[in-house]
Amino acid sequence: MQWNETKKISWYENFSAQPHQPFFALGIPLLAIFTLILLGQFSDVITLNISITQFHIYPLIFMIFIQFFLGFLFVVFPRFLMQAVVKPSVYMQLFYGYALGSIIYLIGLFTFKPLVFVGSLVLFAAQVWAFIILYDIFKKSVVPDKYDTKWILITYLTGIISHVLFLISFFNVSIFIEKLAIYSGFYLFLFALIFAISQRMILIFSKVKVPTYVQNKSKYIMEIIFVLLTLKVATLLMEDPRLNIIADLPLFLFFTYELVIRWKLPVTKVTPIVWILYLALAWIPVGFLLSTIESLAHILQTPFIFEKSVIHTFALGYFITILVGFGTRVVLGHSGRTPTADAIAVSMFMIIQFIVLVRIFAGLAINFGFDYIFWINTSAALLVIALFAWSARYLGILIKGHKPH
Fold it and tell me: Are 283 and 324 in contact (CB under 8 A)?
């Protein structure tokens, strides 16, 4: 009995020793579960008397994606600011908060609908708590360059505001508030936060792999992007697709200029564990180009429908790809293994790209008389399979845990 208890304590200490381990271990199953819910809803296997905002959009923005990147942030944020690592006792309480909120939310979807709101309140409290932890690290630091960490906090704070709007929208006060919550949550919070992390870490990884590589990003890169994304949200709220080009064309041009001309990433000189991150970035200009074409189609009054192809280019192409890339690297590197991608891992990366293409096609399928629901379900099913494949290879490493030396 005593031996079993000692073994249990030892496992928990290893599992909770690094912040990415618990957050990733919870995030992957949640992503699979909510993708299955979407698949079940569209296949008429399950019936939820609740809007797609509450069983798909809200969970992805404020429950799932943010957990992955918090696990990553609690690793790198103190390093950026040369502060002590976050103690396990601190981030594990936050992890329990996210786990509790997620479970309550899930139960509410299938049983007592008011529990969905209760779960959201718990998730909101966890989000605020995480911001306080990160801000305290930022405030104590005396490093001269706080540009990247400042923008991580700004985008995160924007997410808290968007979350408040979401909570208000649960009471059906105004459709405008719900749309503002969705658009600001997606672009000004999730997209901006992930890019604030990406533009720091990807250039660092590139420099480590190719010592001769010269970092050359724009001085006010985050200011420019945040202003343009704010304009993007404003045009979306006007509900006239023709106006989206006002923000989409500048965003396409800026990201193309920044990523291709200024960054000049050493694509041919790095290993797959790094170039998968480059591939994730490539979906950004692709997404804004698609949105620009969609606006032009409306301006020219053509009947071509794009459905939600644009937003899924970002969600699957950029968010999921970079999540898998960062996640694989962190899981291996922080468990004492060499952060590298073998043939199986590369295959997983490429399957994710195929899923992006399938989902984009699903949005365009209506124009060609194809079965829209079939292609939506196909992309969802493939994503679940890919998540299970990744989990089979890497989730065991996370659950087993590893104490850093």
Answer: no
Cα 173 from Cα 234, distance rounded (Å) = 20
Q: Measuring CA to CA, how many Å separate 144 from each of 138, 147, 150, 155, 259?
A: 11, 9, 12, 21, 26
176 DSSP 8-state letter: H
d(CA 307, CA 98): 32
- Which tens digit of pLDDT belongs to each residue from 341-350? 778 778 888 9
What is the rounded (10 degree) CA torsion for 91, 188, 290, 353?
0
pLDDT of residue 236: 95
The one-letter amino acid code at 85 reads V
CB atoms within 10 A of CB 402: 17
Give the whole-angstrom CA distance, residue 363 versus residue 107: 30
- For 295, half-sphere exposure in the C-beta direction (CA atoms, 13 angstrom radius) is 20
Whole-model pTM over 0.90: yes
Q: Beta-carbon neighbour count of residue 55 at 10 Å?
A: 21
pLDDT for 325: 86
Closest among 337, 314, 315, 341 to 326, alpha carbons compared: 341
In a 13 Å sphere around the CA of 17, the CA atoms on its Cβ side amount to 19
- Both tokens of 326, joined, read 């960062």
CA distances from 189 to 62, 86, 228, 240, 251 (A): 10, 23, 13, 23, 16
End-to-end C-alpha distance for the chain, whole angstroms: 29
DSSP labels, 158-169: HHHHHHHHHHHH
DSSP structure class, residue 50? S
For residue 205, which amino acid is it?
Answer: F
Q: Cα–Cα distance between 70 and 155 in angstroms, integer?
A: 13
User: Among 148-157, 198-207, 210-219, 394-403, which range has the highest average pLDDT?
Assistant: 148-157
pLDDT of residue 400: 77
Residue whose C-alpha is closest to residue 193's, from 319, 356, 330: 319
**331 close to 397: Cβ distance less than 8 angstroms:** yes
Element (H, E) at 366: none
The reported pLDDT for the residue numbered 1 is 42
Residue 8 predicted with pLDDT over 60: no
Amino acid identity of 142? V
**Residue pair 61/190 in contact by the 8 Å Cβ criterion:** yes
DSSP for 340-352 reads: ---HHHHHHHHHH
Six-digit token string for 1: 């009995």
